[in-house]
Amino acid sequence: MIFPETKAFVRFLILSCAVLFTAESGLAQESSSKSVANSAPNEVATAGGPSAALKAVLSAACSQNQTEFVRFLTARNKEAFSRMTPVARIALMKRFVLLNQPGKPSASANPMELREVTDTTGASVHQVTMGLVREDGEWKLLSLGVLFLDLPALEVEWDAEQMDAAEESALEAVKKVALAVEAYRNKYSHLPESLAKLGPPLHGAANGEAAGLVDSDLANGIKNGYGIRYVVVGASTLGAPAKYEVAATPQQYGRTGLRSFFRDSSGGLHAADRQGAVGGVADPKVE
Questions:
Q1: Residue with more model confidence, 189 or 228
Q2: Partner of 158 at 20 to 30 A CA spacing, among 27, 100, 225, 261?
């Protein structure tokens, strides 16, 4: 088969890289692409070479820095990454470095180590093989081990793997909002008018406008691919008789979740597949 874009084919490098990444191996890979450097020295200098790109992307994946990590995705994969749930994005970066928790790469280049934060013996150091390709004058990720990195094809599958965790997180979010509402009522003698009233203050001590009872995501009505809704039932928010409802619905039905969750005004919890619609008191109860 003849490839029409021969230069792009020549620029494709498979870099065998240990998460213990040595300067010598990086220099060897850069020298193997000398013909590319001679034909486009400014491009390689701008991107810092394949070893620098590989070091940077591994560091970003290790520290679970989404902003930095996305810089090394191809345009097609970058767009798909933006559609993935926050949980799925973190899971993808974990796959790159095989770490469960954010790691801390050493600043030295010889060797560069990516490992668990608490690992002082090197027991969690892993080896990975990555493929890089030139796109618009910069090195971008193309493969991880034997897996071709095609996020548009993989994102649905990976989101499905995370769906159970996302649904569990949504149910916990409903419970957490209810606890925060009750804590707010006990302190201020009335219900909060909105979720924003439960969020952290921008500065200073917590108060009735920002009680600091939930994180900023919940205060904005989102949690791991679910939209969170809080509604006061009745015309008044004053006193113990006032009631409220809390609902969690998948932001992208079929990808971020299937079930909708609902806390009724009496405190009962319900869940059902509502095709992305808000749940209700008629849905089956859950614990």
A1: 228
A2: 261
Q: In the 8-state DSSP scheme, what is residue 44?
A: H
User: What's the order of all strands across the beta sheet hosting 147-148?
Assistant: 13-18, 127-135, 138-144, 147-148
Distance, CA of 202 to CA of 270 (rounded, Å): 34
Task: Name the residue type at position 207.
Answer: N
Name residue, tokens 């934060």: 117
Is pLDDT above 90 for 154?
Answer: no
Beta 259-263 vs 269-273: how paired, if at all? antiparallel
Average pLDDT, the chain: 75
Q: Is 167 helix (H, G, I), strand (E, B) or coil?
A: helix
202 pLDDT higher than 50: yes
At 219, which amino acid appears?
A: A
Predicted local confidence at residue 86, as pLDDT: 74
Q: What are the Cα distances from residue 75, in Å, to 39, 64, 66, 218?
A: 24, 20, 15, 31
- Nearest by Cα to 71 from 157, 22, 141: 141
Domain boundaries, the chain: 6-149, 162-273
Q: Alpha-carbon torsion 89, 95, 99, 104, what sign? A: negative
From CA 250, how far away is CA 64, in angstroms rounded? 24
Beta-carbon count within 10 A of 163 CB: 21
pLDDT digits (tens, 9 = 90+) for 98-111: 555 554 444 333 33
pTM of the model: 0.57
The pLDDT, as a whole number, for residue 30 is 34
Measure the CA–CA gap between 233 and 244, rounded to whole angstroms.
5
Distance of CA 233 to the CA centre of its chain: 34
Separation between Cα atoms, residue 93 and residue 153, nearest integer Å: 17
User: What's the helix, strand, coil split of the chain in %, to 5?
Assistant: 40, 20, 35
Asked whether 250 and 257 are in contact (CB, 8 A), the reply is yes
